[in-house]
Write a structure and sequence with these properties.
Blueprint: E1 6-11, E2 32-33, E3 37-38, H1 41-49, E4 54-58, H2 63-70, E5 84-88, H3 103-117, E6 121-126, E7 129-131, H4 135-142, E8 149-155, E9 165-169, E10 175-180, E11 189-197, H5 199-213, H6 225-231, E12 235-239, E13 244-246, H7 250-259, E14 287-288, E15 293-295, E16 298-299, E17 304-305, E18 308-310, E19 313-314, E20 319-320, E21 325-327, E22 330-331, E23 336-337, E24 342-344, E25 346-348, E26 353-354, E27 359-361, E28 367-369, E29 380-381, E30 386-387, H8 390-393
Parallel strand pairs: 1-4, 1-6, 4-5, 8-12, 14-17, 15-18, 16-19, 17-20, 18-21, 19-22, 20-23, 21-24, 22-25, 23-26, 24-27, 25-28, 26-29, 27-30
Antiparallel strand pairs: 2-3, 6-11, 7-13, 8-11, 9-10
InterPro entries: ADP-Glc_PPase, GlmU/GlgC-like_hexapep, NTP_transferase_dom, Nucleotide-diphossugar_trans, Trimer_LpxA-like_sf
Protein name: Glucose-1-phosphate adenylyltransferase
Keywords: Glycogen biosynthesis, Nucleotidyltransferase, Transferase
Length: about 400
């Protein structure tokens, strides 16, 4: 018997505004993670290990940053003659043309393409979380279940629950209630932005909702589509108990990096059975030089450390000069921390230079310095400067 025809749609077109300066000049899925990876590497690697080779990526904001990284799908074995990777940008020329205004609106715009492809199951995933998941297992559970949608769910912290779609699950895994980013969540069971749809029924419903609310009124999946499927008793849950982190805010992004600094990180990114793949770089081995000190840190290729690094992540090409100290921080590619400078609880964007004897960050909230921060001309924190300015904090 032939395997079911499965299409994966990666929704990678969001503005990512909660990541602030990190998405000012790049797409959110192109944001680096754990030194050498990008956020989109996680769903694409999941597709590869799940043996799903038909993958479409919807792009919108800063598409060049993401398209360059995708490399025609080669790192994930998606550069195929038949099927493989397809990048979907906004377009003009048909009745479905225009700027995407939400995840459900995105599905509506691509509906004719999906119908032409005629999949048995449509897997829709976001690209701003860190996790490993066999999508094929979720698809197999969905097919034959009678559900119109299967929502992959996970448990989240009570104070974090208002950020997500929250569900109540009854007997047999049926979703009995769905609330999109509620002010007062009734449970801590959240959808983790992985959905498997029965395409024909879902797209028919989406057309009806578009007629009722207007195409712009469709907004996100959780606005009308998922609540309607839940009310009709056609939604089921697939509980996921593994590691999953939404890194869509600066604080969550920093905290996830801290979790990967432990002796036993939550995910083995090099596990031969489920390695996370990425577009390869061209960097030499990292160099940790005499009289420097490094502990509890991730050091990528092409870095050069002459100072002290503790509890931090150094991306490719980072330079820590003599006498400089970096503590509990995430440094993206090409950052240079000059002699005598101190960086604490900070995320430094690509190419940022911290001047000699400057002090960035502290014991409070995570500090973010972008490539175009209003710190100085270009991306350099001036020598001797202190950021944030203690007088401004007062």
């Amino acid at each position: 018997m032939a395997l079911p025809r499965v299409l994966v749609l990666v929704l990678a077109g969001g503005a990512g505004g909660r990541l602030e300066l990190l998405t000012e000049q790049r797409a959110k899925p192109a944001v680096p993670f754990a030194g050498v990876y990008r956020l989109i590497d996680f769903p694409l690697s999941n597709c590869q290990h799940s043996h799903l080779a038909d993958v479409w990526v919807s792009v919108q904001f800063h598409p060049a940053s993401l398209t360059l990284h995708l490399s025609n799908g080669r790192p994930w074995d998606l550069d195929r003659t038949d099927g493989g990777l397809l990048v979907l940008p906004p377009y003009q020329g048909t009745a479905r043309a225009g700027w995407v205004s939400g995840t459900a609106n995105s599905l509506w715009r691509y509906a004719p393409l999906v119908r032409d492809f005629a999949p048995d199951a449509l897997v829709v995933v976001s690209a701003d979380a860190v996790y490993k998941l066999d999508y094929r297992e979720v698809v197999d559970g969905h097919l034959g279940s009678g559900a119109e949608v299967t929502m992959v769910t996970t448990e989240v912290a009570e104070d974090d629950a208002p950020r997500y779609g929250i569900v109540e699950v009854g007997s047999g895994g049926a979703v009995t209630d769905y609330a999109y980013k509620p002010d007062e969540p009734r449970t801590t069971t959240a959808t983790n932005e992985v959905f498997v749809f029965s395409p024909g029924a879902m797209l028919d419903r989406l057309e009806a909702l578009a007629a009722e609310h207007g195409e712009e009124g469709l907004e996100d999946l959780g606005t009308h589509l998922l609540p309607a499927q839940t009310r009709d008793g056609l939604a089921r849950a697939h509980p996921f108990e593994g590691y999953w982190r939404d890194v869509g805010t600066v604080d969550a992004y920093w905290r996830a990096h801290q979790e990967f600094l432990s002796a036993e990180p939550p995910l083995d990114l090099d596990d031969p059975a489920w390695a996370v793949h990425t577009r390869g770089g061209r960097h030499s081995a990292a160099r940790v030089l005499l009289d420097s000190a490094v502990d509890n840190s991730l050091i990528s290729g092409g870095t050069r450390v002459l100072g002290n690094v503790h509890g931090s992540v150094l991306s490719p090409g980072v330079v820590i000069e003599e006498g400089a100290t970096v503590v509990d921080s995430v440094l993206l590619p090409g950052v240079r921390v000059r002699a005598g400078a101190t960086v604490t609880r900070t995320v430094l964007d690509d190419g940022v230079v911290v001047g000699e004897r400057a002090t960035v960050g502290g014991d409070g909230d995570v500090t973010l310095v972008g490539r175009r921060s209003e710190v100085a001309a270009g991306s350099e924190v001036p020598a001797g400067a202190r950021l944030p300015d203690p007088e401004e904090e007062d």
